[in-house]
Structures are given as C-alpha cells and as structure tokens.
Amino acid sequence: MNPRTEQMRFVILFDRDFEVSAGSSETEGMENGLVISNQQHVLVLKCRTSLDAIQWKAAILESMNSVGRIWLQNHPYGSSFPVRRSQNVQWFVDGRSFMEHAANMMELAREEIFIADWWLSPEIFMKRPAVEGNRWRLDEILKRKAEQGVRIFVLLYKEMEMALGINSIYTKRTLQTLHENIKVLRHPDHYLSSGTFFWAHHEKLIVIDQLIAFVGGIDLCFDFIDRYLTPRMPWHDIHACTYGTSARDIARHFIQRWNATKTEKSKELKEYPFLLPKSYDTVKVPRVLETYSNLADVQAYVSLIANAQHYIYIENQFFVSIIDSDDVRNEICKVLCERIKRAYRDRAKFRVYIMLPLLPGFEGEIGAPGGSALQAVLHWTYKSLSRGPDSLIESLKRYIPDPMEYIHIGSLRTYETLSGKLEHLGLLPEQKRKPPKREIDLDDPVADSFFFDTWVAIAKKNTEIFEQVFNVIPTDKLKDFEDVQMYIAKLPLSETMPQVAEEYLRGLIGNLVEFPLDFLVNANLAPGLATKEGIVPSSVFT
Q1: Domain PLD phosphodiesterase, which positions (predicted)?
Q2: What integer best gives the mean pLDDT of the chain?
Q3: Domains within the chain, CATH numbers bracketed
C-alpha cells in the first residue's frame, strides 16, 4: 500500500505454500531484502535497513502462526479451504426460488456484492411476476445498492464471440454505466499462444458482505428463470446458499480471482481496486481452479467413489471420462470401473446409477447442419460410456460377463396434452408432478428386487411406451443418420391413433427411461474438420 495515498498496490494472501525470507543469507545476497511468496506470486522487497527486514519477517511469522495458520495447513483432497463444521446451508432447485432469495439477500447488502458468472443478463427480473415494476430487475437492484454506497464487483467470462452469443461486452457496458460503484472485469483474453483460447470460466457466484454466498449451476440470465414444475431443459439446475465462515471461503476465492484478473489486465487502473478478505477474530468448499486448488473436487469425487460401500448415484449434465486417455485426464470412469470390479471379485451387491440428459443442451438437430456441437458432446459421452475399448462398459466387459448387473444409465422424459393434442415435450424431466400410481419401496436401492424389478423394469417399460407413441429421438432403433431421416418422416401413433396412444400412456410410471447406448452406434459423431468444433482441440469438450 502506498503510505501517502493509501492506494493498495498489491495483495498476497496466506496459502499452504506461503513463505517469508529476510537478510542476505535467505534472499540471494540482498542485505535489506524481504521475499514473500505464495502459490501465485513472489514479491521481492527492499527495506530501509536489514533490521527492518528482520522485523517484518518476525511480524509475518507471528501472523502465520496465529490468524494465518489455517491457510498454511493441508486440507482434505489438497483443497485450498478447510472443512467448516456445523454450517447453515440451503439449496434451491431451478431458477425461480434461487433468484428470489438472491434478490432478497442482495437487498440486505451494506458493504459489498461480488458476482461471478458465465452469462449475465442485466435486465432479468429476479422476482416474478413483476408486480412492482422494475424494482426487482437485476440492473435496478445493483443500481439501487450502488447508490446506497455498496461496492459491486462483477467477474464475467469473456467469450469467444464466434462460438457464443452471450455478449459479455454488452453486460459490462450496461452495468458500469449504472453507477461508479459498479466495477466489471472480463476474463480471459483469447490468444492461441497463452492457452486461454480453449477454456471458460463457468462458475456462478454471488457473495454479499462476505457473509452470505450463493454457489451452484444457475446463471443470472434469461434462460434460467424457470419453475420447479416447468423445467427449461432435460434436468433441474441446482444452486445453494451458505452463511458465515463457509461463505467467507467463497468470498476469498472470488477475491483471489478478481485480484489475479486485475493484475493481469488492469494493474495500474485505480478504478479497479484490489480486494481483501474481511478478517474475523463444517461446510467444505471445493473448487476447480488449476493453479490454486489442484483439482480438489475431482480428487474428492474419486475418493468418494472408491470408498462407496453400497451404491453410487450420479446425476450430471455431462459425462466425459475415458479410462487411460490422452484426451480426457479425469479418473472418474477409471475409479468407477475399479470399484465395480472389486464388487464382482468380492461377490458383493453394488450398484451404480447414472442419470444423464438424453441429448446435450445445445442448439441443432441430429444429422442436420448446425448440430455439430450437439453431436460433438454426444461423441465424447458415448466414448466415455460404451464405445471403444477405453469406455466404462467395454472396460468392464473384459472382467465381468454382464456389467449391467451393476450399472444402469438412465434419463427422463415426459409428455403433456396441449390444446387437446398429445405432445412429447422435448426431453423435459417433468411437466407436472403427479402422484405415483403405486408405492415403490426405496429402502434398499442395492437389492435385486429394486434394481432389476423396479428401476430397470420401469425404465425399460417407459422407454418402450414413449417409442411406440411419439417416435422419440434418441432411441436405440436408430443406428445411423439415414435411419434418423426415415424415422422422423413417419407419423407417430399420437397423431394417427390418439385414443390408442392415450391407452399406452396410462402404463407410464414416473419419468424414468433408458439412456440409448446404441443410438447412432454406426455413425461418426466426431466433429468434422470444416466445423468450428473440429477446428478447436478436443480439450474444449473434455
């Protein structure tokens, strides 16, 4: 900090690699030298006298052994953050409840609001219906708080414009013109030489006064303001809110990202200040941020899978993990395979339930122009699950006669009647939550009676009904793109014989269906060289 202007010039935080050195013997001959380093930076200082350097070192060591001790320790899975016990956490399913609560919490802000987002729409209404005019529109909330003296810092993903239309420059300009207390940085710049051409910041955070923190999978953008009964995609998005010390950990993470971005892009611009964590004299916050945490959450997943006793349930938007692959480095599939093989060797009951969207949430149609991104994600999904010697199922087949005794891969479908006409609603998980037609015993998800007679049987029956009534895509019936074109040309039973179709649909139980592992099994789903997906390296998708 400049002692005359009190302008903060640099921030270096305690972490497990933090060190301090002083004197000529420790600083390569600098008699008055002081060297402070952590995982991100090495700060070399020259004090007025050697005594000053030694006194600075002593003061820093005292802090390291007291308030800074927790950050110098090793934490589970190599994480940057400690386990926080007895924390208050609440979760939200879909955007409506999350956004309303986030708006209420931002209204409580007195000092700071931090926002990190992949896509942010300034004009989104955080509360609906909009019965109070624009009061609960995001830009109006931020403007109102900025006028009250709250400092607002926003970190946005700077997209590749040729690939994405999220228009982060519009968001930055819109927010920064609202008030001088609103600061927006975008990251990264995309240069082939720097390596930032191939990855994206995809986290979604809101932190209020470093005491309340939201983290999860919901962007503050138009697509995400959905209701629990009307999901926007083939899955429900999840967000969480935590308070107290775990919220301060999330704030610390944002501060590190903000300071790193400022150092890289706006170091000398006074209008973009460095940030500091608040000081105060067990929720675990895992994060994926390469330099900082060494993929702590992936290590946590691996440990949880390897040590699972009875069953594993995985529900995710994507599933890309190939065993011993140069393209895909995570070991999720490998540890799943090893855990199932161990159950087979021990003759133990063990189940793995995997739930995935039937199709990735990308624009385009299968086999049609513009479907390259959709097909590219399918390519990597099938390579991970069932196609090729390094896929999960093919790897298991080398050791286990029937891997499907241990693993089931499922998805969700629904339908509704619109204007008196049966409609298959894309791949939405559910339009209405209806009471079950019969009670299903969920007490033992490992038992054969549940796994085979309930879960697998219901998924198979529901799949057959949807295929009979709606000619749904994807389906195992379609092995290549020619099959797809002939299939979509046929009128479904829901149109030719709606009354018969309704009889079939009465046999549905819930929304569970099978994930079609043989869909387009004879087609090449890898992106062509002439597409933008083919130009970029495979690491973009893996």
Answers
A1: 197-224
A2: 84
A3: 19-73 (no CATH), 89-289 (3.30.870.10), 308-535 (no CATH)
**SS3 sequence of 31-42:** CCEEEEECCCCE
- Residue 377, classified by CB atoms within 10 Å of its CB into exposed (0-12), middle (13-18) or buried (19+), is buried
- Which band of pLDDT confidence, cut at 50, 70 and 90, is reported for residue 178? very high
Query: Residue 328 contacts by C-beta under 8 Å, 6 or more apart in sequence?
Result: 320, 321, 322, 380, 384, 542
Per-residue pLDDT band at 454 (split at 50, 70, 90): very high
Q: Using a pLDDT cut of 90, give the percent of the chain over it.
A: 39
Q: Which of 95-104, 236-245, 276-285, 517-526 has the lowest mean pLDDT?
A: 276-285
- Could you please report the per-residue DSSP string of 222-255? GGG--BTTB-SSSS--EEEEEETHHHHHHHHHHH
Which of helix, strand or coil describes residue 120? strand
Helices (H), 407-541: 448-450, 457-470, 481-488, 493-496, 498-505, 532-535
What is the DSSP-derived secondary structure letter of residue 454?
I
- Cα 445 to Cα 126, 355, 451: the distances in Å are 38, 15, 6
Provide the 3-class DSSP secondary structure of residue 71: helix
Q: How many residues does the chain have?
A: 542
Q: Identity (one letter) of the amino acid at 30?
A: M
Model pLDDT, residue 208: 97
Mean pLDDT, range 333-345, rounded to an integer? 94
pLDDT digits (tens, 9 = 90+) for 501-540: 888 889 999 899 999 999 989 988 877 766 666 666 566 6
The C-alpha atoms of residue 117 and residue 175 are separated, in whole angstroms, by 14
Residue 479 has pLDDT above 50, yes or no: yes
User: Looking at the predicted structure, is the pLDDT value of residue 442 above 80?
Assistant: no
- Sheet with 42-46, strands from edge to edge, namely 19-22, 33-37, 42-46
* Spatial separation of the C-alpha atoms in residues 380 and 383, rounded to whole Å: 5
What pTM does this model have? 0.66
User: Comparing C-alpha atoms, which of 266, 274, 271, 273 is closest to residue 12?
Assistant: 274
Query: Is residue 511 within 8 Å of residue 462, measured between CB atoms?
Result: yes
Q: What is the dihedral of CA 426, 429, 435, 440, to 10 degrees?
A: 120
114 exposed, middle or buried (CB, 10 Å; 0-12, 13-18, 19+)?
Answer: buried
Contact status, residue 12 vs residue 2, Cβ threshold 8 Å:
no
Residue 263's Cβ-count burial label (10 Å; 0-12, 13-18, 19+) is: middle
- State yes or no: pLDDT of 195 exceeds 80: no
Helix extents (H) in 308-456:
332-346, 372-385, 392-397, 448-450
User: 447: buried, middle or exposed (CB in 10 Å: 19+, 13-18, 0-12)?
Assistant: middle
User: What sign does the CA torsion over 263, 167, 370, 217 have?
Assistant: positive
Task: Centre a 10 Å sphere on the Cβ of residue 501 and count the other Cβ atoms it contains.
Answer: 19
- Separation CA 532–CA 77 (nearest Å): 36
